[in-house]
Fold each of these.
Amino acid sequence: DSPRLLGPAEIRALAAELDVRPTKTLGQNFVHDANTVRRIVTASGIGADDVVLEVGPGLGSLTLALLAEAGRVVAVEIDRKLAARLPRTIAEFAPGQAANFDVVTADALGVLPGDLPQTPTALVANLPYNVAVPVLLHLMAQFPTIRTALVMVQAEVADRLAATPGGRIYGVPSVKARFFGDVARAGSIGKHVFWPEPKIESGLVRIDRRDAFGTDPALRSETFAVIDAAFAQRRKTLRSALSSWAGSAPHAEELLRAAEIDPGLRGERCTVDDFVRLARAGHEAGI
Ligand code: SAM
């Protein structure tokens, strides 16, 4: 059975019933287009074996499309009014799937595995725009069981996340996302599929996890500290940008050489593998 999805009329009716006044702070732009939610689900590659974590289910547009393909969906929504209405929306539009759905009222930025009734294997979300990158990085770090993430974010943020070394837009989000796996753009989404319409275009990003650096939280935080330091002054060479991290410029130079990185480069030239080698060299030197 194909599920009933939410179109403009359903979104309007739900919003009126709940007296929803979408807030920018919570990035509340609701999708009212069936093709868009189907595209997101297809791009995620999820199937019947997956337990999908959805952040910010809102009125349930993407949730219904996910339930059509996934084994289970666990949604985390910060807005109590929206969270409270969801089980009834699922029961009305996808009665056969209602038993496969859970919603937790919480801030996704603080959610941990023990807060969820199921262990997620995938993350699929139309993320609230102002916290999109922190939410994505937090969940990839705290939920190592998530093998694939497919998120919709502002187009510009999607470009940054998927950027490769050397370019102007390659920065902290690009390197940190790559710590977790392979990152790729997975499409663009216009403004007209949302209510209310945002000012900017959206983009899809996919991360396929690759535990290349293990799942050690210490290595992750040490690597992220070097990345933050290297890009805090992105016009400086690594030798000088990393001098306070290393204690002095000569020590930064020594550690960069130990990690086989040219101290005269800028951070924007380095891959995540470079930063991991550097963090390891720093760790051995007691940083
Ligand atoms: N998934 C729905 C859709 O596609 O129509 C809504 C997406 S809307 C862009 C973002 C949703 O995230 C809103 O429902 C908002 O209330 C919720 N939200 C905002 N900040 C959040 C947070 N920190 N944790 C969990 N949910 C959040």
Note: The first helix runs from residue 8 to 18.
Amino acid sequence: RKKITLPTLLAMHRRHDPITMLTAHDFPSAHLADVAGMDMILVGDSLAMVALGMDDTSEVRLDEMILHCRSVARGAKASFLVGDLPMGSYEVSPEQALESSIRVVKEGRVHAVKLEGGAEMAGQIRKITTAGVAVLAHIGLTPQRQNALGGFRVQGKSTTGALKVLRDAIAVQEAGAFGVVLEAIPADVATLVTKKLRIPTIGIGAGNGCSGQVLVQMDMVGNFPPGRFLPKFVKKYGHVWGEAARAVEAYRVEVKDRSYPAPEHTYPMAKEEFLEFER
Ligand code: KIV
Ligand code: NA
């Protein structure tokens, strides 16, 4: 497969070819997404929850994100890689945002960074892109601000809310973002925003009128313990957790009844050698 670059993605957008994006957080999940032909892989800070067991994304640190970015970079050969800037690594100033972005790209070996926020982050986006690092913006529901937003709530449902989403989208485009993630907004709003922009929109919980889609890999393959809350927009395409749980339980049973390891898993020894050893 040919390496996906920024020009590849923008060409796809021009010919209305939907852009596929999936998260990954380590070597195997990146390899899987890459081999499956994902155009983009996101090392999302959702890894705080799905890979590190944290309660929300606000806990994960920049150095932790960089470690995961590097593992993903080793697993992906063709997909375009985007690393999330975690909460606290970019909001303070455009300079802080650029320093963090350079670390994510240089040490994390990804091709671009993503940050949450609209018009208020225009300074950060301009600073980073001017230095030559590509930025994917993220507006609508921005999980790093869940406490300020009052939880995971759909954004842009009112006329004023929808106008804010549109203004934020235009602001990040004008600041130099190469694309924008639209999370948890009404489909009609996302479709209209997509039509008004020159840059591609990547939807998650934003309907099928976006230029592309992104999902959290562990959610869509069903690799999470029973009882985990899933947002309405997640489609569970697989049951990986159930399959892994079945395998581990079978192993436990076979160790207990000594049916594992069987002869075919065991190293034999010549009889005479063993008799000698036994003496
Ligand atoms: O962290 C993440 O996985 C994300 C996507 C849900 C867009 O930001
Ligand atoms: Na994220």
Note: The two ends are 60 Å apart (CA to CA).
